[in-house]
Amino acid sequence: MEEIELPKGSEPLKNKQHELFCHEYLIDLNITKAAIRAKFSEKSARQHGWVVFSRPEVQERIDFLKSQHIKELGIDAYYVLKNLKSVAERCMQSEEVLDRDGFPVFIEGPDGNVAPQYKFDQSGANKSLELMMKHLGMLSEKVKHEHTGKDGAPIDIKASVSIEEFKEARKEILNEF
């Protein structure tokens, strides 16, 4: 019979405490809390947690368990993006502001006309759009600062000081110290 190779991390770990750590880590992705819940000493949980977490077999097991959760929940990048889009659109819809009795609140505009007041969830819309942009690579976490010369060429620097002027200025600077 032909042996079938199982995916990495699919077998439970031999060390039961490490196996428990893997499952506990997936609850909140907090290494120290996972170590405490896996019955490591609270005093040394942070250190032991990192030691266990950095083991290759633990990483493989966590990755496998994560992939199983994703499969079971039916979550993929398309699902997440679709729902982020839905949240952003819902947050950008304006809603009438109502008073305690359920009647629209009216405000006077700059032109003197009275109109109903509206609100929308700007922070929810911004966060959803930000997450979508990061996923799609439209938003970089690090700002890249590059300076170039004309047409993208290196900056052309020309010294406008003669060697004699440079030596004289250098001598003055060194004499000040």
TrEMBL record:
One GO BP: chromosome organization
Q: Does the keyword Flavoprotein apply?
A: no
Alphabetical list of Gene3D superfamilies matching this protein: Terminase, small subunit, N-terminal DNA-binding domain, HTH motif
**Chaperone listed as a keyword:** no
Read off the InterPro entries from this record.
Answer: SPP1-like_terminase, Terminase_Gp1_N_sf, Terminase_ssu
Q: Which UniProt keywords apply?
A: Viral genome packaging, Viral release from host cell
Q: Which domain of life is it from?
A: Bacteria
Record's Pfam families? Terminase_2
Q: What is this protein called?
A: Terminase small subunit
In its UniProt entry, the species of origin is given as Acinetobacter bereziniae LMG 1003 = CIP 70.12
